[in-house]
Amino acid sequence: MQRTITTRYKHQFRTALLQRAHQQQDLQLHHLKQQLEQRSHLFIVGFGTVLGAILAMFIAYHLSNIWSGYLIVAVLPLLVAYGLRKVYVHTLSHTTEEDF
């Protein structure tokens, strides 16, 4: 009986330690993401804007309605730049040195 109680407490202790370590890793990841969000990442934003502008011009050229073409040309580059920046920040925060 004593052995099963000791084993149970060891298991609970290990589980508590693993949960604490996991919470600490989550906190570090959240802090890293906040730091990366504060940076501008000008190259990624510029690249996304140029890519979005090319895509928007291609789509707008093939549309017959003038107003929807202007809307796409105005909004699509910003959306592509924002999306590309979010993907870049996510990739940076989830890559470790062992991945290289």
TrEMBL record:
Organism, scientific name: Acinetobacter indicus CIP 110367
Keyword Membrane: yes
Protein name according to UniProt: FUSC family protein
Transmembrane segments: 42-61, 67-84
Presence of the UniProt keyword Membrane in the record: yes
Keywords noted in UniProt: Membrane, Transmembrane, Transmembrane helix
